[in-house]
């Protein structure tokens, strides 16, 4: 057994990896992905998700003409082994995410199979997360899909290896770097970026004049519900990455008062676009960063009330 985090394996040597070694990770998706990386040891470069899956008893991986789904895992409830098919018509980076997602269902044996022979996962499932829904509507299916996604991104773009991408001024150029370095889609890279960055960020994805969906980081203010609606005006530009401009918070935020907002756009092929919003609070007393004694005294009095 390789000591945790001290593996000195060659790039293709995954022999330390086995499902038995992962048993202790339990049901937590991030811990499971972290346990895989611990067994692989410190590595640079793209995460070899295919080889990892093969090592973990996925006996066949293939591309298939899938109609309404992105990925299929064929297995049985006991999970002796599995076969994964990914959508032939999706690009390679999306296929990598799908494969990682299906591997998540395979390893999290508490996930209940969808059909009699495994899991069928749609494009919507690949972006499912529990935070998007009121708690009453969280069902088992959504829960499982969200867990498979948490596993998939932690396996492909581990938190630990993203630190250097997160410590600078927010910029979609970093998102492009992450997408290249980890071979994940720009969309997945952007979601990961706003989720982990310590600044208040949100990203919105759209096509032509409409917003398809948005993701915000934990401290970003509430967005106006924009899904499916006409988008606010974007900074001018023809293609590629825009500069970072000031935006009118009233165009985007539910409560724009006291917030300064900057905006950057990435225009992509076929009129698709991605918008990064960066919020900074100005005169909102709840968020005012006074620092020093006044702040401490204020907090002290609150605790002693
Ligand atoms: Zn799924």
Structural class call reads alpha+beta
Tally of separate helices: 9
Mean pLDDT: 87
Q: Which ions, cofactors or small ligands are bound in this entry?
A: zinc ion
E-strand count: 10
**Elements, N to C (H/E):** HHEEEHEHHHHEEEEHEEH
Helix content: 25-40%
Question: Based on CA inertia axes, which overall geometry fits?
Answer: globular
Termini Cα gap: 54 Å
Low-confidence stretches: 1-11, 287-305
Percentage of β-strand residues: 15-25%
Radius of gyration: 21 Å
Largest sheet: 6 strands, antiparallel
Provide keyphrases for this structure.
4-stranded mixed β-sheet, disordered C terminus, disordered N terminus, alpha+beta, 6-stranded antiparallel β-sheet, 305 residues, binds zinc ion
